[in-house]
Specification:
Number of domains: 4
CATH superfamily of the largest domain: ATP-grasp fold, B domain
Helix content: 25-40%
Radius of gyration: 21 Å
CATH architecture of the largest domain: 2-Layer Sandwich
Strand content: 25-35%
Shape: globular
Structural class: alpha+beta
Number of helices: 14
Number of strands: 23
Distance between the termini: 48 Å
Largest sheet: 9 strands, antiparallel
């Protein structure tokens, strides 16, 4: 098969690495890709939101199957346009991608499906929003309704902060078109996990759970980021909890989407908050998480490609996937200043030395090649994956990989996996 992967981050590098190992894959391209992806796939300079150019490339190069990594082209209808030309793809169409594209749509589907989630309301009027915020009380969560590149969620610790967040999004339109409406919801307490399942619109197949680290600093301090590290499996999602997440959240949602006439095909990423009462839905994403995808791909024994094809064509009910028992833990190396202002263009050395270490994988996120040099070209730049029999061993190997990389302009958190390791030490 001739495969096109859309995207340029660590998630797409992990997907290309896994897909390239499939005996079904004869040729793989990635648009636009990065310096690391170039070792697995032929990179083509097409942006992820250039729908016309992506479809034309797929048609002109006789692509058999397209794997869409990020959410933006899914919400923009890339899968729909590919389908019009007879090219199957992994990912939901635009209507189903609204599970991520609109926070209010997601909450409406969850309510219709009886999925446990936080109390919420949608607003376009700042005064009405502020009145509801006072009725909820702080802390609470204010979200831009549309896609905001992971930056449209504000946790307000006080009513004053809630008022400021409402004005920032609705009045100042801080997130552009995504700011037209907001969702305000109660703040849920507990331990957060990322859960992934595949769907062909009717059948669902659980993948695995992971936990990521959103804050930039050790001890979960500082501003939120796109994710500074992750690990899988996570102790908080054992077999019993996985069964509850599937029965209470994933399966009812897939049924509700089918009943609406917008069947969901692709990977459903449920962000869940778990407390003594069980799991509650925080949000849905309609693509693999980044950096969670790197940990999942490092653990997956089975060939990924047939399962992705089954999501598009149906027949997922006949599938099962096998996983390595060990833990995979990924540490993100980011450019100094991230998630604020950061410089591009610094040279990264020692990548071959790090990749040669036992049970260490290097996934590129924001890199580009300049001759023989690898340069930083983004905020989150590298994902260093360690594999081990438990979280402590996996972390030890991941940080050995970090130490082997020579990049003074980069930094990472030093406590990735602390929850799992603390549990192991009890």
């Amino acid at each position: 098969m001739r495969i096109l992967v859309v995207g340029s981050g660590g998630r797409e590098h992990a997907l290309c690495w896994k897909l390239a190992a499939s005996p079904l894959c004869d040729k793989i391209w990635c648009a636009p890709g990065n310096a690391g992806i170039a070792s697995e796939a032929e990179c083509v300079p097409i942006g992820i939101e250039d729908i016309v150019a992506l479809v034309a490339f797929a048609r002109n190069n006789r692509v058999d199957f397209v794997v869409v990594g990020p959410e933006a082209p899914l919400v923009a209808g890339l899968v729909d346009r590919l389908a019009e030309t007879g090219i199957p793809a992994f990912g939901p169409n635009a209507a189903a991608a609204q599970l991520e594209g609109s926070k209010a749509f997601m909450k409406e589907v969850a309510d219709a499906a009886g999925v446990p989630t936080a109390r919420w309301r949608r607003f376009a009027d700042p005064a009405a929003a502020k009145e509801f915020a006072r009725s909820l009380g702080a802390p609470l969560v204010v979200k831009a309704d549309g896609l905001a590149a992971g930056k449209g969620v504000i946790i307000a610790e006080s009513i004053d902060e809630a008022d400021q967040a409402i004005d920032t999004i609705l009045v100042d339109a801080a997130f552009g078109a995504a700011s037209a409406e907001i969702v305000i919801e109660e703040f849920l307490q507990g331990e957060e996990a990322s859960f992934f399942a595949l769907s062909d619109g009717t059948h669902v197949l659980p993948l695995a759970a992971a936990q990521d680290h959103k804050r930039v600093g050790d001890g979960d301090t500082g501003p939120n980021t796109g994710g500074m590290g992750a690990y899988s499996p996570t102790p908080i999602v054992d077999a019993a909890m996985q069964a509850r997440i599937m029965a209470d959240i994933v399966e009812p949602t897939v049924k509700a989407m089918a009943a609406r006439g917008t069947p969901f095909k692709g990977v459903l990423f449920a962000g869940v908050m778990i407390d003594a009462m069980g799991p509650k839905l925080l949000e849905f994403n309609v693509r693999f998480g980044d950096p969670e995808c790197q940990a999942l791909m490092a653990r997956l024994k089975s060939d990924l490609l047939p399962a992705l094809i089954a999501c598009s064509e149906g027949g997922l009910g006949h599938f099962d996937l096998r996983w390595h028992d060990e833990t995979a833990l990924v540490v993100v190396m980011a450019a100094h200043g991230y998630p604020g202002h950061y410089e591009k263009g610094s040279e990264i050395r020692g990548l071959d030395r790090a990749a040669a270490l036992d049970d260490v994988l290097i996934f590129h996120a924001g890199t580009k090649r300049d001759g023989d040099r690898i340069l930083a070209h983004g905020g989150r730049v590298l994902g260093i994956v360690g594999r081990g029999t438990n979280a402590a061993e996996a972390r030890l190997r991941a940080y050995k990989g970090v130490e082997a990389v020579d990049w003074p302009q980069g930094f990472c958190r030093r406590d990735i996996g602390w929850r799992a390791i603390a549990g192991d030490m009890k």
